[in-house]
């Protein structure tokens, strides 16, 4: 877990650092302006990363939610 | 009475009904009332927190920004995403500590961690000052939605009074249980409305989403990206970061953390929240669709983009459904704010001044403060004028100043002392106030810096001042603090 959780930093780098390079309208991504599509891709990557972190986090094995 | 009005009133009555019914079978002490007896599962907590993204500000403001500002709007997607990542690590810690110490408000957290009821008063005042304009914004949005979607038959003033009466009643009766149940209705309705509008309008007017963006790009080249100065990439990055830090610092959001049943709820939500906020994309699409269809909305009127475009496109009953969804986006956050403000004023301000109050008296005070806070908000809604705009801009920056003190307090060896916490928050808040009132930007304070740095969100300055003061004062007072923690017991 301890190493895996550093994955969570990746979206920060991508969304914050990448904006300087992604700031353009074309090409369109999923029909959206490039910058907006770029943000959306990072939201999806974030979700994937959070799933990985969740699955590998031993604290989520104990107890049930509902 | 037209179809739109009937639907709007039906939804208002339903939310009163849901709100009051939520109380059933619960003994309403302060713990039940303000944090739902810490019994909410994943779905309720999810909806209460999602309530934070779908406020009237995002509903009207998100589409309004897309219409009026273009590219900079995307920041809304960015900050939520980063805030949810942090929530995975921060929220379980906050929840656990709150449960172990039976905390009921955000201020309680600072009081308990820093062993200082007076820090609690400072945090409470910062929170209330930030929340009132936020609430006023919801009320103004509600007024706009009802008057527009009733085709002008109900004035904004009347709408605001009715909306306020609805929230006040169900908050007084059911507290957070009422908010949770209305949140269910709200999210279902808003999801349907937003997806429908965001898909239908671009197809109807442009033949698709990409054709719409192409048309906008042809008419206003570069509008769909960030400008080179002003709201440039530097502005974007710093704003996303600061807003993400401030996200959970609102007293009502912080309070809803306590309502969870267990800490796993937050880790699970951290997976779904980022993807769920993509619904906002469809709100943006509506705003972009309006650019070439609804001409001439400038300044604050840009917020009318969604409603105006809908009115010129649909039959009254559709407008009624949109209006009803819009009203719920105002009522849910509004109810959370009313409750959080009343709780902290009763427990963290009044009780500190009059320590001999019993728990039952504090609970009663909190409940009776609900209409008082509501009336104060109404006063500012009708009489606020320009001061209100300044306060609104300040709200988010103000609560963000609580972030460093809070995060350091979660560390095993917190080096921040009580005095450091006071000084850091105090100077941060003072800096925000000064900067907002004088209308300074990073560029006007440091004109010799490169443009990229001049465009930084001005909140960065307050945050840096806050951190420096926090470090210095904590280092200086370290030795005295050790003595203090031994001799004092908070609460």
Automatic annotation (TrEMBL), chain A:
<keyword id="KW-0472">Membrane</keyword>
<keyword id="KW-0812">Transmembrane</keyword>
<feature type="transmembrane region" description="Helical">
    <location>
        <begin position="31"/>
        <end position="54"/>
    </location>
</feature>
<dbReference type="InterPro" id="IPR021741">
    <property type="entry name" value="DUF3311"/>
</dbReference>
<keyword id="KW-1133">Transmembrane helix</keyword>
<protein>
    <recommendedName>
        <fullName>Permease</fullName>
    </recommendedName>
</protein>
<dbReference type="Pfam" id="PF11755">
    <property type="entry name" value="DUF3311"/>
</dbReference>
UniProtKB/TrEMBL annotation, chain B:
<keyword id="KW-1133">Transmembrane helix</keyword>
<protein>
    <submittedName>
        <fullName>Sodium:solute symporter</fullName>
    </submittedName>
</protein>
<feature type="transmembrane region" description="Helical">
    <location>
        <begin position="271"/>
        <end position="292"/>
    </location>
</feature>
<feature type="transmembrane region" description="Helical">
    <location>
        <begin position="157"/>
        <end position="176"/>
    </location>
</feature>
<feature type="transmembrane region" description="Helical">
    <location>
        <begin position="388"/>
        <end position="408"/>
    </location>
</feature>
<feature type="transmembrane region" description="Helical">
    <location>
        <begin position="317"/>
        <end position="345"/>
    </location>
</feature>
<dbReference type="InterPro" id="IPR001734">
    <property type="entry name" value="Na/solute_symporter"/>
</dbReference>
<dbReference type="InterPro" id="IPR050277">
    <property type="entry name" value="Sodium:Solute_Symporter"/>
</dbReference>
<keyword id="KW-0472">Membrane</keyword>
<dbReference type="Pfam" id="PF00474">
    <property type="entry name" value="SSF"/>
</dbReference>
<feature type="transmembrane region" description="Helical">
    <location>
        <begin position="233"/>
        <end position="250"/>
    </location>
</feature>
<feature type="transmembrane region" description="Helical">
    <location>
        <begin position="415"/>
        <end position="436"/>
    </location>
</feature>
<comment type="similarity">
    <text>Belongs to the sodium:solute symporter (SSF) (TC 2.A.21) family.</text>
</comment>
<dbReference type="GO" id="GO:0005886">
    <property type="term" value="C:plasma membrane"/>
</dbReference>
<dbReference type="GO" id="GO:0022857">
    <property type="term" value="F:transmembrane transporter activity"/>
</dbReference>
<feature type="transmembrane region" description="Helical">
    <location>
        <begin position="456"/>
        <end position="476"/>
    </location>
</feature>
<dbReference type="InterPro" id="IPR038377">
    <property type="entry name" value="Na/Glc_symporter_sf"/>
</dbReference>
<feature type="transmembrane region" description="Helical">
    <location>
        <begin position="116"/>
        <end position="137"/>
    </location>
</feature>
<feature type="transmembrane region" description="Helical">
    <location>
        <begin position="188"/>
        <end position="207"/>
    </location>
</feature>
<feature type="transmembrane region" description="Helical">
    <location>
        <begin position="6"/>
        <end position="22"/>
    </location>
</feature>
<feature type="transmembrane region" description="Helical">
    <location>
        <begin position="73"/>
        <end position="95"/>
    </location>
</feature>
<keyword id="KW-0812">Transmembrane</keyword>
